[in-house]
Automatic annotation (TrEMBL), chains A, B:
Residues 1-132 form the HTH marR-type domain. Gene3D superfamilies: Winged helix-like DNA-binding domain superfamily/Winged helix DNA-binding domain (1.10.10.10). It comes from Amycolatopsis endophytica. SUPFAM superfamilies: Winged helix' DNA-binding domain. Keywords: DNA-binding, Transcription, Transcription regulation. This is DNA-binding MarR family transcriptional regulator. GO terms for biological process: response to stress. The keyword GTP-binding does not apply. One of its GO terms (molecular function) is DNA binding. It holds the Pfam family MarR. The keyword Transcription regulation applies.
DNA sequence: TATTGTTATACTCTATAACTATA
DNA sequence: TATAGTTATAGAGTATAACAATA
């Protein structure tokens, strides 16, 4: 039972990773850069961003540098703690993120065309359940 | 509606990626090496492995080299086409893959334990739909 | 003293182009 | 001619250790 769920998640992960890799190439980004743009919703600090990405904080410096150099995001000083930088999307970054999300949705829809209305309606609940489980 | 489905898949992907990255570190592997070990079921050629991973074939040479050097997999000549090498897990590789899968199942159970039976069932159906769509 | 972000280092992953050996 | 795998190269992601600024 647990193995079934795990292998389902593993399969979804692998397929989504391939999808994201292809989309990243279309937009001349790397997979990680695509992840950062899409996961960047609440002005995280660089350390928090490292946690979101599941990598070491030392990597985040360079990744943010490169995206900042392309004008897609920016560092902003934290108001309370002067050690902290917070990462925000620029207008160009937000626009690109929307194009990426739309493209990803197209690719997913292509693969899930046979889902029923009920199944699609269920997706809202699934997404909510997974993200609330992740934030605990 | 399509966006809901896509964001559910995106969330599952991101959570699974973080999980895999952590597990890879536990086993002193990279995320990609972990993916290769887990995705290596049907003696793929190196080119097929590139497709499975969603990357260029030129990367596969080095990744297979490193895993072969660690005794986790091996190249075997194709019987019909002498240009082709097929990749197989060694005994040590199969053993490690089982330990990774078990560990991943533990993490998924921990992480997604709050999902209802209905939600878990839907995850499995999504995975089945995605992998059959992917193999077309 | 502890934490945040940075730098330096070494290794891995990534795509492009050019090559070889087979087909 | 075309294809499978390799090599060379350059850029990007990765973790470890050491550091400056701030808490």
């Amino acid at each position: 039972m647990t193995q079934d769920l795990a292998s389902a998640v593993a399969t979804l992960h692998r397929e989504a990773a391939v999808l994201y890799a292809g989309i990243a190439r279309e937009f001349e980004l790397t997979s990680q850069q695509t992840q950062i743009l899409c996961a960047l919703s609440q002005r995280p600090s660089l350390g928090e961003l490292a946690t979101i990405l599941g990598c070491d904080k030392t990597n985040v410096t360079g990744m943010v540098d490169r995206l900042e150099k392309r004008g897609l995001l920016a560092r902003e000083p934290d108001e309370k703690d002067r050690r902290v930088s917070r990462v925000v999307l620029t207008e160009a970054g937000e626009e690109l993120r929307e194009r990426i999300r739309t493209r990803f949705a197209e690719c997913v829809a292509e693969r899930f065309g046979a889902l029923s209305v009920e199944e699609r309606a269920f997706c809202r609940r699934l997404a909510a359940a997974v993200s609330s489980a992740g934030s605990r």
